[in-house]
């Protein structure tokens, strides 16, 4: 029954939500199911938070690699949670202060480091070895220049507009990029449809923890 | 030849230093490069301009602090435009940290404008569930957000008394750094409820939304810091994004020069294979 009941729930909920598009009378039932989903998601966050704490507690207890960072995580977790629960999360509260002066700068810094790694990786790996990689390199140059103000200000007035990075970038984005992205989008959507059908029909059971 | 070999195996710390300098120096000594506005940014501006004063705009803060340096400035510029036009703003977030970023954005707005919470704007806070949250808002916003971010009953807020569902929203601005974000708003709010959706996102994710722009499902798009600088230019209020564009310009230029030098050394060493050794060009690239 541990397998059958979740499969029946998935099948019934999925079929009702699909049928709602064609049978408006099912809207109240579908809305109720969707409200239940929001409640389930909220509890999933609680389960996720508990799991994060449990894993990090075990890491500290067994002195696994980088266990001091796990202590930092646990301290940070309880500091933010207590600040929010006691003082609220509105403007000017302790939670807001911690968010603005700890979470925000640290998180932004981590993301900003990407620029350094991208520059280093581009230097070492971006080579015009083949025709394909040369085309990719040329497109990257044009988009990188066209994406920033310097790409349009260095162009002299006599320069043909169709050779300016600005104009070329727009063509690459509007034509080549859009065509490629649309193909990816349609492919991914077909994949979602087929995976959804497999879940509804009970063929795909990985969400139950099966192989 | 030694120089070429040195160039091919350059210490990554030198690259890091040059990138850091190319970002920091233009911040300290601004170059004031002009920002050219794209049609995608102008479309959003024109839409906000065309709305009658007092219209309701929903702004979704679907991003986190990692993406904030790029996305937050466009949120501020867009909010300024809305409040200049006396529009009412409903804020919400499909990302947990987005609601808190909205708090800091509104703190700036309340310093600049005479705004009253509940009358001119509301912050509904964060709700988990992505597409389903948006779909449920199509039936009733109060059911999805019974209380606002500070815990006040949504129904008690004067602004929310006029807004029962997504049908009462005139424009949606989805500021997004991933999923759930712009695709969810397009899939549900535009496709199901025929609402006008505009988007703002990180530069790296902007290309994937061009199909939506071409079909008109997305009325406009602000892509990365450049998009934010474009909107600041449109609202004639240059701010953080415009200042940072100089740094981005120089950093892009430096990376392009790096790649050109790397390719020059690659071609020179390829002709003299005996000179290339270790991590030199021609060998499989080492990890960054």
Could you walk me through the main structural features you see in this protein, from its secondary elements to its overall organization?
The complex is a heterodimer of chains A (211) and B (288). Chain A has 211 residues and is mostly helical. Chain A has helices at residues 4-20, 27-61, 67-87, 94-125, 131-146, 150-153, 165-200. Chain B folds into 2 domains: 2-30 and 247-275; 39-238, Rossmann fold (3-Layer(aba) Sandwich), CATH 3.40.50. In chain B, 50% of the residues lie in helices and 11% in strands. Chain B contains 12 helices and 6 strands. Chain B has helices at residues 2-8, 12-28, 39-50, 68-84, 98-112, 131-139, 141-144, 158-161, 182-190, 210-215, 224-234, 240-271, and strands at residues 56-62, 88-93, 121-126, 171-176, 197-201, 221-223. In chain B, helix 5 links the parallel strand 2 (88-93) and strand 3 (121-126). The relative contact order of chain B is 0.18. Classes of the chains: A mainly alpha (211), B alpha/beta (288). At the A-B interface, helix 2, helix 4, helix 5, helix 6 and helix 7 of A face helix 2, helix 5, helix 6, helix 10 and helix 12 of B.
In short:
The complex is a heterodimer of chains A (211) and B (288). Chain A has helices spanning 4-20, 27-61, 67-87, 94-125, 131-146, 150-153, 165-200.
Sheet having the most strands of chain A = none
The average pLDDT score of chain A comes to 91
Can you count the helices of chain A? 7
The number of distinct helices of chain B, counting runs of at least 4 residues, comes to 12
Strand content of chain B: 5-15%
Here the CATH topology of the largest domain in chain B equals Rossmann fold
Helix share of residues of chain A?
A: over 70%
Gross morphology of chain B is elongated
Poorly predicted sequence stretches spanning 5 or more consecutive residues of chain B: 278-288
Describe how the helices and strands are arranged.
The complex is a heterodimer of chains A (211) and B (288).
Chain A: H1 4-20, H2 27-61, H3 67-87, H4 94-125, H5 131-146, H6 150-153, H7 165-200
Helix pairs in contact in A: 1-2, 2-3, 3-4, 5-7
Chain B: H1 2-8, H2 12-28, H3 39-50, E1 56-62, H4 68-84, E2 88-93, H5 98-112, E3 121-126, H6 131-139, H7 141-144, H8 158-161, E4 171-176, H9 182-190, E5 197-201, H10 210-215, E6 221-223, H11 224-234, H12 240-271
Parallel strand pairs in B: 1-2, 1-4, 2-3, 4-5, 5-6
């Amino acid at each position: 029954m541990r397998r059958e009941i979740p499969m029946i729930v998935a099948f019934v909920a999925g079929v009702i939500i699909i049928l709602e598009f064609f049978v408006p009378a099912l809207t109240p039932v579908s809305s109720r199911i969707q409200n239940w989903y929001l409640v389930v998601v909220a509890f999933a966050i609680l389960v996720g938070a508990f799991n994060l704490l449990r894993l990090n507690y075990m890491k500290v207890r067994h002195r696994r690699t980088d266990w001091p960072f796990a202590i930092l995580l646990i301290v940070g977790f309880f500091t933010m949670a207590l600040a929010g629960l006691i003082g609220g999360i509105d403007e000017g509260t302790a939670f807001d202060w911690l968010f603005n002066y700890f979470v925000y700068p640290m998180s932004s810094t981590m993301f900003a480091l990407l620029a350094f790694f991208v520059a280093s990786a581009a230097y070492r790996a971006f080579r015009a070895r083949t025709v394909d990689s040369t085309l990719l390199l040329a497109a990257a140059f044009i988009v990188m220049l066209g994406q920033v103000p310097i790409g349009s200000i260095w162009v002299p007035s006599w320069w043909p507009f169709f050779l300016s990075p600005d104009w070329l970038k727009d063509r690459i984005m509007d034509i080549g990029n859009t065509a490629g992205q649309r193909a990816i989008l349609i492919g991914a959507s077909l994949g979602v449809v087929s995976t959804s059908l497999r879940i509804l029909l009970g063929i795909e059971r990985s969400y139950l923890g099966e192989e | 030849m030694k120089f070429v070999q040195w160039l091919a195996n350059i210490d990554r710390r030198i690259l890091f230093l040059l990138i850091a300098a190319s970002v920091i120096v233009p911040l300290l000594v601004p170059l004031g490069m002009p920002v050219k506005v794209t049609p995608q940014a102008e479309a959003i501006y024109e839409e906000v301009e065309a709305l009658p004063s007092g219209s309701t705009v929903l702004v979704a803060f679907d991003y986190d602090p990692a993406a904030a340096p790029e996305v937050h400035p466009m949120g501020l510029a867009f909010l300024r435009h809305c409040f200049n036009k006396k529009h009412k703003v409903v804020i919400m977030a499909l990302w947990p940290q987005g609601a808190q970023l909205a708090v800091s954005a509104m703190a700036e707005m309340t310093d600049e404008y005479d705004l009253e919470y509940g009358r001119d704007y509301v912050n509904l806070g964060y709700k988990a569930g992505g597409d389903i949250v948006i779909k449920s808002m199509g039936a009733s916003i109060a059911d999805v957000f019974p209380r606002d971010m500070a815990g006040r009953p949504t129904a008690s807020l004067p602004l929310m008394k006029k807004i029962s569902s997504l049908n009462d929203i005139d424009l949606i601005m989805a500021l997004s750094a991933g999923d759930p974000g712009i695709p969810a708003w397009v899939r549900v709010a535009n496709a199901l409820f025929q609402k006008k959706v505009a988007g703002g996102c990180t530069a790296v994710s902007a290309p994937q939304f061009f199909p939506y722009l071409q079909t008109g499902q997305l009325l406009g798009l602000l892509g990365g810091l450049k998009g934010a600088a474009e909107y600041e230019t449109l609202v004639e209020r240059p701010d953080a994004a415009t200042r940072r564009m100089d740094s981005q310009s120089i950093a892009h230029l430096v990376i392009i020069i790096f790649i050109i030098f790397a390719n020059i050394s690659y071609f020179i060493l390829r002709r003299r294979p005996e000179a290339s050794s270790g991590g030199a060009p021609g060998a499989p690239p080492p990890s960054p």
